[in-house]
Amino acid sequence: MHLRTEQRLRRQNDFRRLREQGRRIDGGAFTLWWRSRDAVGAVPAPALVRVGVVASIAAMGPAVRRNAAKRRLREIFRRHQTLLPPGTDLLLVARPPLNRLAFREVESKFIEACHRLTGAKT
Length: 122
Prior knowledge:
Oligomer: single chain
Strand order of the largest sheet: 1-2-4-3
Distance between the termini: 31 Å
Structural class: alpha+beta
Strand content: 15-25%
Order of helices and strands: HEEEHHEH
Helix content: 40-55%
């Protein structure tokens, strides 16, 4: 199952805003940047959790490794997006250990980061 178009961060401004105004959580295999969107006039609907996934050449290497890392992060997000508060923008940045770890390990690191995010938000 794919992510809906409204769930993806696509504009460079969204990525920049997340890095400048968002908060960061180190997940070991990835870095998670997050920011809550304003409910007033938010497009798309404020209830959606949106995600952007980045894997740089410097960190991950050739395209095959970068694409594998992005696929893993997107799938983990898709499975566990309900752990995140509505109206949250998320940026997942792949780091070198991501492709070396088992899927379940990365998944548990993401779940832990989500719990830290929701704990920081309250």
